[in-house]
Amino acid sequence: MVKSIEESARERRDYVEQARAAFGGQEQSNPPKAVGTEPQEGASTFGIRLVVAILLFACFVYCDQEKVTYQGISAQDIVKQVTWDPLPTEKLEAFLGEVEITAGRKK
Length: 107
Prior knowledge:
Elements: H1 5-29, H2 46-66, H3 75-83, H4 89-98
């Protein structure tokens, strides 16, 4: 028994519709989510991060002006840690300036 092209196409279409209904039914059976609970696709959290950064900076400035310390750490100690250079690049450049780097070629 040979199926016609139309019959094969109809069977494939029916199968695709069944698969869509099976997967689409799961999405529709989930309870609706509260508006604004999760960021939508493509939504940015830049505004929230900006507000948090501004609040942290304001707290830092306040602690610096009022000389507030936390467990013996002052705002000046934080500034020193932020500006500290763990790898002095001047010494590294001086050292690497003396080293010649050549690519190893096999002959």
